[in-house]
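Researcher: Hi, I'm a grad student and pretty new to this. My advisor asked me to get structures for two proteins we've been looking at. I'm not sure of the right format, so I'll just paste the first sequence and hope you can take it from there.
Model: That works fine. Here's the first sequence with its structure tokens right after it:
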Amino acid sequence: MGKTTIALSVAHRLHSNPQLLLATFFCSRESVDRKNPGLIFPTIACQLASWNHEFQDILVEVLAHYPYVGSALPHEQFQKLIVEPLEKLNPPTTVALVIDALDECDGERASEKILLALLQHVHSTPSLKVFVSCRPAAYVEDLLSSGEHRRMFKLHHVPTGIVNDDLRLYYRQRLEGIRVAKKLGSTDWLTEELIEKLVEQAAGLFIFAVTVCKYIDSRGDARRQLEHITSLTKGKYDNALSIDMLYTEVLSAALQKIPDSRDCRDFARVLASVVHAQQPLTINALGQLLGVEPSIVYDLLRDVHSILFVPNEFGALSDEVVHIFHASFPDYMTARNRVGEKVPSIYINPQSHQLEMSLCCLRCLNRELKRILPLSKDPSPLDTDQCHLLQTHISKALSYAIIYWADHFSSTVPDELRDEGDPLLEELQQFASGKLLFWFECICLLNASGIVIRILVKGKNSLMSLLSARGLYRHPTLQLLEDAYHAANEFFPILQAAYAKHIYLTFLLFLPQETSLYRHYSHYLPPDWKVTGQQRRTWNPLVRSLGLSPFSDTVTFSPDERNILDVDYYMASANILSSVQLAISQILPESSVFSAWDYEKIPGVDAPFPKTDSNNLQPGMVSTIWLPSGKIVSCCTLLSDIEMPHRCYCYVSLWDSETGAHIRLLHKTMEGTNMFLPVIKSSPDFRYVGYSNPSVQLFWDTETWDEIIFLSSHTRFYRCFAVSNSHYLVGNEIRDVSRESPLLSNLDIEPQQVASCVFSWDGQVIVLGLISGFVEVWRVASSSEMVANLQLSSIADYSGALPLPSLASSPRSNFIVVCFGTELYLLLIADDGIACAGYCRSPYSAHLRAVAYSLGGQFVACRDNNGLVHVWSAEAIFDPTVDLNTSRDESTPGSTSCLTYMADSRLCLSGAHDGTLSIWECDTGSLVQTWAAQINVIAVSASSDGRFIASSGLEETRIWSLPKMDCPDSKLKPQLELIIAAPPETIGFIPAICAVTFSSDSTMLAIVTGFIVDIWKLTESKWQRYTLLKTSLTRFVPNDDAPVADDFIQGSSSLLRALRFNYQWLAHFYHKLHVRPPFYLRQRISEAEYEKSLQQCRSAFEWWKLSEANSTIANTSHSQLYFSLDELANHEMILQPWEDDKSKELEVKYFWKTKKEYYRRNGIFKTLHPIFNHRPNWIADTEGRLCFWVPESHFRGTWLWYSCASDGDRFALISRDDSNLIFVHVPGTGTTE
């Protein structure tokens, strides 16, 4: 009896018990929903809720608190949706779950993840009983062979006699039902001899019995078919399984009814397509893909109902799909020594058919893909019924081709293609050059954004392999697919949100204009829509910037390259493209951080990991490795206790990434020393994990997790540590990875000068990153020698914090990526040399601290000193067409800090950090006029009558008068009218001057600081002070001083927060470098005093210190004020900017009245404005309609008041990575009608 039959029987028996709550899920590889592991636990929870109202109420509360749980990992779904609601039921209720055919779930290790999630919780939930069936697998044996509350029953261990009795019973009942249905006589229908013959032929395979009965029940003479099956002898199929005998007879009989050779060929094609299809297809979809009439497909399959599910004539017209009954049939069809010998006319070489399926998919795409949404200047979200669009414009065949063309293409081998005029490459060229944009639109409509990157990576990599086999490395089709890949990374939020209309708006609008994709598809933009200014010419290598925990010194990719590991006070995975975070480990309740750490506590198990928190006085650092097996290794180092002497704790743990379970503690130590930062690395093949601290070097075998090396450290420079598949470096010693760990050679280096080191992927060389800015390449041999070096930049170039280089090796080639200071370098290690193959800069000019390659080499990621993790496309860094050097033309102004539109909206005024003011012609992006205004410009404003402009620097504001313009490109000669010094009490405030703005009638000017608004009025052609509004606040400097030991005593009047690890401490304490204080301390502390403070254990971190009495000051400053139509309007902050009653009365008198004033043309929210909070980077009009989305390559982070400006259908912004000006013109939007 089969496992599904048993599961059904168990479910029926449990259902009859009124004291049980029953829920079931029957997996099936033939159903898109039933093979989706992410639907198992939500479906079960829904069933339980339908049976029990109390469970339903609890589940509703869970969904309200955890709306993301539908897309969470299996173990979190099971815990939140099932276990926790069950624990709250009163009285407790016994629940039985039946999950069948778990092995038919789709996805890597999917069934194992489900089983792990069940085992993790079932022992602690006595009221929960679970029945699971699946095919035999090694992981099933491992998980169920030991442990409490689990029992395994193997069907193939059932005695033969019992199996044969079940087969006899099945044959009698099923064949008798066929006889009655076909109205046959009972004479000689089913004798005992026939039954025994059938049982013998089945050889214990229940699927054989099922297929026999289906064959006998098919059209034709049932009695003759029964006799034919029982007359077959085993000798005819000596070298075949019993099921092969049956498949051969069914296919041979079907062929006899298809006399036409062309129909026979189509029959073989249809069968091969059913076997090789990525998901089951309908009769119509099969016909459309293969170019065969659906009616013919139906006729060809009429005689194979016993081995395939074929819809009847009514079902063939609906959405019922053709699918196999058993996994043995594809094995039979794809084996040359089985079907190829028995029914050779049916056999098609799998690779040849993959080529045909690929060609069929591309022909379908080129034939059916077209623009679905009409040309419209209305950029609002799609209001048409999406289901209607799918039914009308996207057939089942087209939907299949859209999703799976690359899967079939990637299975094509170069030998199957012709050198010239190959139809597959011609179809691919036609698709890439004419249909890609429509394909992206359909991806949106199908909500398939989650797989778009996978499709394009498969497509372009497969084409690259095919071309390289012919000696070609550049091709127009390949360039288009690479552009499509970069575009999918860049515009993923558009695809994810399914804004199909914006494929023709935002997507095209912000495509780099020198890319092949833009040249082929820009004509689909609405008329006159364009982007000008200092726009990127080609793709930005930067894919995303993620705000993750600052308490880590590594960047760790998931094995599938989709996520980055984040460890705050629990483990989570952050999706690279969507930025969505999902919990991996459990979230532990918060505990007091003032108490000394208990050495027996394990971080993440008995207490939370170190976290970013205002009460956290015991921070730490966590390093991680995510192995291809799904295991995670964490190394958590906690800062020493507050009391003397200093102590530091380190824990190395092993976790399961699928369930979040803590598997084991690999190592723990306590050092009677200051904070230290151990190093944990894996070998390139992930066979070994190595760990180095000041006292010891340890290695584990990742197959058994046995400790294979425990070596007392021979050097205090433990951070000079790298691991290859056979060797490791510690200090200047190269040793063998073995239990004896013999010394192989010594490098002639000073380990204290090495900030980072890594072996090449093949282990032949080791690359060192020195604190001096040099990269050295050493050959690994018995007599190690340096073969090349390269100077990146000098530490003398850095006047602030000293940079420390970090290195990572490509997993598949001799590329090394290095971050040093604000630069990221891609280096190629040649035979005896080293060369720079790519280069880019850090966003925001932040120092890069740690670098990593993803497992497949698709991404490179770095942490910076602001706590962000930046992810670059490795391909884009190397691609010579990518704009790596973002330096500007010397004739253009410096880094832009602020901008505003002028009275003539074709002109824009900008200010720069170098003190220049510039006027730009927006339609062309050309510079009209630039002049030196003051030392620094951080805010500008232009009067509505075109007469004045105002600029604010650090300590003063200047008003300039402008002559009248006869034409937009006339040379303007601004005249300085007035210099207004900032009030003395605001000097030293951060920042000294926030903003300036003119009133709508151009007669008043407001100059805003954090706590003073200085208002000036124009009277008789002269500017005079009108009023000065003040709050009770007089000063706010967040980092007032370096924390000292007394600050950490409980009850101190200071509030402290550990911001991040202090790499200056590492540079001074470990590398013995002289370091400078951070900028906010340079006026208050000398270099000697700062270096002395770094000797304190607490100075391994950067701290935020603030008097408790002033803890709310940060929320009391204005960012900008705007004149209303009458007087002034305030840009609302989260809290009221001014707290005392008198100031509040003044604000109501002079400033904002209602929120509607946000949308007035003279405020920050002009006609086109950013949408704050819930839809980042979207620009909307006054009605709230989404006009376009600004890619993260142009703007990242929170919109600031000075970063954008708007007038009518024009919008300007500052690109925050390089401070370039971008002008957007979108005619037809931004109107108030």
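Researcher: Oh nice, that was easy. Here's the second one.
Model: And its structure:
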Amino acid sequence: MRDGLEALSGNRKECDKMGQLYGLVYKKAGILWHPSLKHYVDPTSQTFFDWVHILLASGGLGQYEMNDYLKVLQLNNVGLDQLDSFQQGVCIPKALTKLPKCFFAERICKDNDTHLRCFAGELLTAIPAMTLFNSLVLEPLGILRDHRLCFQQLATIIDILSKGEGALQFLPQLKRVDVKSDSQFDGGDASMCTADEMLSDHCCSCKKRVDPENSLVIVRASVKTPEARRRRSCHNVRGAIQRLANRQGNLVKEFTSVSGDRLQEFYSNFSNLRGEDLRMKIEETVTDWKTATTTYKFTQDAEFMDEIEVRKKYVDRPNVAEHILLNGRRFFCPVKKVMLFADPKYNAKVEDTEELGTSTKRKAQTALKENEEPKKPPRKPRKGQEDKNIEEKILSKKLEMANAKDTLLKDAVESREKRQACQQPDVFKTVKNSVDTGKGNASHLMTLLDEAMDKIVEATSRLKAQLDAAEAFNKPNDWSKVVPKLGKWSRKLHVSFPCVGIDGAGLALKCLQVPFCANNVYDLEGRYQQHLEKHLPDCDLHLGSIDGDICQADLGSIERPVDLLISGPPCPPWAGNGCHKGQEDSRADVFLSVMKMVLVLIKSGDLKACVLENVKGIMHQRNGATSFMENITAFLRHECPEFDWGVVSLKAEQYMLAQQRTRVFLRGLRRTVGKGTVPEPLDPFGKKPLVDFLDPKLPSVDKSTLTDVTRQNLIDAMAAINKMMKKGDAVSSDIIVFPLDRAEGKVYVRRFSKNIVPTLTTTNMFLASLDLEMPEKDRKFFRFLSLTERMLLQGFDADTLYDCSDALRIKGAGNTYPVPLIIAVVAPLLMEIRPNLGAVPRSSTSLGAQDCAKFDEFMEVAKVKARLISQGNARRMASKRLKDLLSFLSSLSGLKDAPRSMEQQQRLVEGCLQDFVTGPKIEMTEGTEMVNWVTAASIPGWMKEQVLQAVQDKVLADQTNQKEPAKGKRQPLQRNLHLFHYFTEEEWGVMRSETQGLNAKLQILKNRCQFIGLTCPTEPTYVLANVILHLAAHNGPPETFQIDTRKAFRVLRDVKTVIKSGSKKGQHSGLEVYPSDPKGLPDAIKQTAYCNAQPVACPLDIDTIESLAMSFPCRETHGDVRRAGHSGVSLRSSHRDDGLRDILCNALLDRFMGGSGGSQPEALTIFGNGQSFKKRAKQPLALEDGFVDGPEDKTCKTTVSPQVIPEDGLPKAVEDAKPYHLEVATIYTCPNSQSWRVKKTGDKKDRAFSWKKEDPKSTWKRVVGYLEEIAN
């Protein structure tokens, strides 16, 4: 076909005719005739058949079969409303589309040769629901067996095709099902052929076969409906029945309600009757139909069983068990700690009814007895009274329900004596009074009752679930068996708890059986209030962001007396997953505030001992600086000799907690108490396995509740765990714990812990047992760490914070300190305090204010010192690493044990370079110096290449990985004062061409800046580009070049516009200073910028370019512009006033040579002629270029000029003088100013010398002295 059309392509008419027959349109550029594609494209063998549209959508076979199957159900008295009610009770997976409530009743098409009106997604849900209806309802009744079997074949085909690539393994089964389905269709099964196919050659009344001779056309054939015929005898009967309607109307109406097989039988057997015989048969048929009408009603009930019970019950029908587990209703039983599934049961209720005219009388209805009068209906009250009675009944019923729910809440929590304040007694009382008195707004009262009931129900369910979980779990934390007995106490101990958290210290004191009362209780989390009120009664709580901020507490109003202070300030400034800012972090101020409270209590004589807890990072030295803890202890030992101080580090896993949590404790003890020295902590309690803290009854995680990211993280983590198993790093009895919100390649990588929980934070952990052969839902542990388990792993009771939200429980467990560690460090201190407790100390006034001031000063000095040390070490560290690396590689050949093979040396070099690459950042200038070191190093050439590449890549990475500027902020400025070395030979040809216009040259400049990532140039870089354009267009020698000021500035503005437009498409290179040679660029930029041609040496005179760059106009600041000379002035005198230059140079020379300074007044007097400044009018770029567009001969005036010293001693300005440019600086002044400003060449900022408060002559001497200083 393809070749035939191609052969006829010359004859358009024949080609179109043959293409119409083939169904193809010949196009020479089409893929069927393309020279390079036509041998590979074969539509007949490469067609993809979409089974979804063939079976489920767009009039698919499945839609036709479902529609006809629903018709068959209706013919057998199965109502579609019952089917809809059934499908609403089926639990649909989230992947499928939920069906509307009246799906089957509304979507069925009763016309012939029509399909179900639905989408493919809806049919994918309807087929499993119908299959479940067949197996649970129709199969027990034993009806429609052939129809059910045929529909089951359709469901099997859809189920196999829905498996995607997994359907390949079911191909043999699919072929068998397809053949079986075809055989059923050939046998004429009603569920596989449509009603139109069955009735097209049958009588539409009696269903007997017809032919054109013995039948009449009732409905002509159309596009949508086929032809319908009726036998002549049936048609005559229909006519006779219509005639009887005139005399027996009710009887005929009842006969029209007869349908199905009974009506077909009537037309087949009595089509020859007429008149009275026909009427008698109609009456007999109607009477028989009335007494035999049967209605099926199905009611659903369910038995809830766990998965094992369901599979055991349906062991001989595993597919039914799978459907129940997949689609049945489910809920988690908090008592059994298992997921229960509903096994539905259906009861069929058969009702026989007898129709009498338009009324229906049930057989079970009894007649009235003799002399019995029918009951009169109750008298209806008046409309207003009726509404009032109804509202009163509703309110009374709701009030009873609310009281019953409240009673359930009491029963749930009274056993634990912890009642949450969720009752609504005022609401109950108000409603009861309104019901009793009949007054009040009923709708408002019902709203209040509904809200109260919702709160009670929510609190009841949450409390019962949490209490059941806590009571069902064995309590592993029984510290009474391991803590020492301290004996009796003479009085209560007064203990302060700044940064109290969830009161881990208070629980430790209770475990030690220490009687105490709390004071100075501070915390920023106000939601701990209810919990702390129960555990620390009779004390003032300072909680919340305002009252609980200890940094704002008044040290003069500290609650006293205080015997012991226990605190755990925030740890993020020193935590491993924090910012590592140390004292630079604002949260470190909390630790300092607690320390100042300790100082005040020590100096006041109250405090006997103190304990401060934090992470081990507080003892680490950052970048060579002294650690924070060392600074604290150094100050305390020097300024607080009354106390002995000690620092100890303890691990939670050694104290019967299966958690990797190391904590540092700063402990102090007054020297007059006990032995006067800080005792050692208690010995380790031992280790306890992780499984003792875990609840084995909790179900596995439901993956559908996870986000896409965490679901992918879980898949990656399980793949990594499988690799651990294969390597032998883990065995099947192990439990792996890891955070699910972390992944490989991120800032915080995922780390696996085996048989122990990593340090608990405010994020949750995931548990995975290694019984990998089991399905995930049957594994022993495959879930998140529960809230109860988090509390147990910190040493708390299982029901801690049981009446709080889940988020608060996670936060409280992550931020607290482990109870056994507090016991271990506090118990020895209490042993020293108890014999020397004595009477309650008298509260004395604060004597520690001066010590607090000293402490603040000491810590501030330590912070500054650490900052300077860190900055200096960071700069030296990178250079030192590279020098050590080069020294090691150069001495490698002289070592006896050095690796000899190339492969071993390669691995050694890669390891050394890895240490260098992960070191501190490298600046561009430092990188250039490093390149020179590597080039001069005496190491093999292949090593030198790798080290050079590593240095260049690190410089590029450190420059490009700068923090992105915030939205609305500029990118870092880029300086390139050697731009003339960055052009290729072709680009120089365009810029020096006399035939090319300015636009072409600007385009070359824009592209080159864009290629090298120069998107944000500095002002000197713009000026340099302007000089290159002007000098490249000059044909004569450099000495003959003259500056046209206005033209130069217009071109400068064009240069800025063009480069800025290109920067929107380009990408910032990250380089702030470009090297003098393009070869020094990072490889990534160099390969992109010079992929087609390499840069060449500048063909222009470089000295001329640099000299012109000093004289071309540019914007030096936002409101100040350096001007060039007037148009027509030669290069050598374009920006200097010769007379002014000579006089000032003489004055400076006299100063430098040690003269008496007699020339200074002379130098001063030449600046002015007694004129004063006029107020400058606001105009665009007035301070920038000194000119505006206008006539060519217009004199350009400047507003910046030196000052003069008149006779009256007040400085005045000279209007026509210009700034004076020296080789080392520029001297100028501003309008209405009283200062000279000197700007050093190359600097962005200037220096002011004001005569506002001193003699102007003295000021000028300081100016000359400054010039002498920078000149030397």
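Researcher: Is there anything I should tell my advisor about the second?
Model: You could mention this: The CA atoms of residues 1039 and 1132 lie 8 Å apart.
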